[in-house]
Design goal:
Blueprint (H helix, E strand, L loop, with lengths): L6 H67 L6 H14 L3 H28 L1 H7 L4 H33 L3 H24 L3 H27 L12 H22 L1 H12 L5 H19 L5 H11 L2 H41 L7 H17 L1 H9 L3 H26 L4 H30 L4
């Protein structure tokens, strides 16, 4: 007769097996993030030449104006996506299907209320919002006409983020990442077809909706493969769950507001002082720089749980482990990251010319290089950012976003007030300086928090 293990030993063995399974899934989730980022970069690389060729600089600038309003409308999400992911993951660990459904429905109800309010506000402020960008009569009329539809599309897109958060909370962030990447590809292909058919900016909006519908179908299908969930059921409506999701999400919402101020503000200033045709040049530099930063940053996200575990131990060995993790992370940024950025800095004129061809503008390489310096300065602060989160000092990450956004606004307004004009060089330079100061604050606070954490050992 075989040996029988005591119940507590069997429990430990089950935990070990589960840990191995989760570790394997964790690696898949992390790898999917890198792959999805690469796909998104390729989509962006293909989309700019296509859109500029089909629409021209002015009409594509008008679309970017509409997408800026999209960003503001998505504030109606109130940061509930990450809250849903957290609570669904907790209920999943408890194998509590009713709890999962109640949190998902709670998030959708909150979005329904906030999205409705956002749409009403958008309709009321339609003309003042359009006036911010100082467009000519025809472009202003087109933006005003499409604005409500763009608002609806943005609320729908945030609903998909909530559904994706449910899938991620169920442990399949890899599927969420791949579906979102598939949505980006779908949007590019559909937009290309509709632009070829001569549908212009309306075609861009229709492509966005088609991509959202595709993602919606794939997300629901993936969730149903894991759990037979019933989203719309009376017993799944819980006011207590709504309050819990809202209270958690509001903290993330504040950080979202602060971080989202940067790019839309710069777009408004570029449109007002330089012209709507300059927006694509700014957007290529800013979006391109941030995508390159994200490609390197996505590999650093795995340090967060390791730091959290070490902080919980509060031993000398844990302190040494944190220093080792931080040293390796910064080594990765200064070695791999610096090589990537240095190559792009040197080859910027050639790569932009090959990429954009007839749409290439001579000032693009200089603008892009300045933005590369800024985003690399921001990348240096990523290890400190995750260290602070792992130690529970989340408020400092919020303060760093506030410093970056506020300093960017102050510098741009000062330049415009003193000189009476703005250039793309001055705008991206102000943004880069703000990023560097934010990084300095993160590093300072991470070192200070480390000293405080282990001061009594």
């Amino acid at each position: 007769m075989g040996k029988v293990f005591p119940r507590h030993v069997v429990g430990k063995l089950n935990q070990v097996m589960l840990k191995k399974l989760l570790s394997s899934q964790l690696r898949q989730n992390m790898a999917s993030g890198v792959i999805a980022t690469i796909i998104n970069i390729l989509v962006v690389a293909l989309s700019y030449p296509l859109y500029l060729r089909m629409l021209g600089y002015e009409q594509y600038g008008v679309w970017l104006v509409l997408s800026s309003v999209m960003t503001f409308t998505q504030l109606s999400g109130l940061g509930i996506g990450p809250a849903v992911m957290k609570f669904v993951a907790e209920e999943c660990a408890l194998q509590n299907l009713p709890g999962i459904q109640r949190y998902a429905v709670a998030a959708m109800l909150i979005l329904g209320v906030s999205g409705t309010l956002a749409m009403v506000l958008l309709l009321i402020l339609n003309n003042p919002l359009v006036g911010l960008f100082k467009l000519d009569t025809d472009n202003a009329r087109n933006v005003s006409r499409l604005l409500p539809w763009v608002g609806l599309a943005s609320v729908y897109a945030y609903l998909l983020q909530i559904i994706g958060a449910v899938l991620s909370g169920l442990g399949r962030m890899d599927r969420t990442n791949y579906i979102q990447a598939a949505g980006s590809v779908m949007q590019l292909l559909t937009a290309g077809l509709l632009l070829w058919m001569g549908m212009g900016i309306v075609g861009m909006l229709m492509a966005t909706v088609c991509a959202c519908i595709t993602m919606h179908v794939l997300l629901i299908f993936s969730i149903r493969q894991i759990l037979k969930m019933r989203f719309f059921c009376r017993e799944n409506v819980s006011f207590a769950h709504m309050v819990k999701v809202f209270h958690f999400g509001k903290n993330i919402f504040l950080g979202s507001i602060v971080s989202m101020l940067l790019n839309p503000f710069n777009r408004v200033m570029v449109s007002r002082y330089i012209g709507v045709a300059a927006l694509p040049i700014y957007d290529i530099a800013y979006t391109g720089g941030m995508h390159i930063r994200n490609l390197v940053e996505v590999a650093l996200r795995s340090i967060l749980p390791e730091i959290s575990h070490a902080v919980a131990e509060k031993t000398d060995a844990a302190k040494a482990k944190i220093f080792s993790i931080q040293h390796q992370a910064w080594g990765f940024v200064f070695k791999f990251g610096l090589v990537v950025y240095a190559l792009l800095f040197m080859l910027a004129p050639l790569l932009l010319h090959l990429w954009l061809r007839d749409s290439f503008v001579a000032t693009m390489p200089e603008i892009f290089r300045i933005m590369l310096v800024g985003t690399y300065a921001s990348l240096i602060g990523v290890p400190a950012f995750y260290l602070l989160m792992g130690m529970g000092c989340v408020r400092h990450t919020l303060y760093s976003h506030a410093i970056q956004a506020l300093l960017n606004v102050i510098l741009v307004v000062m330049v415009a007030s003193i000189t009476g004009q703005l250039t793309l060089h001055s705008v991206v330079s102000c943004t880069s300086v703000a990023m560097a100061v934010s990084t300095a604050y993160l590093i300072w606070q991470s070192k200070r928090s480390m000293r405080n954490l282990f001061a009594h050992q």
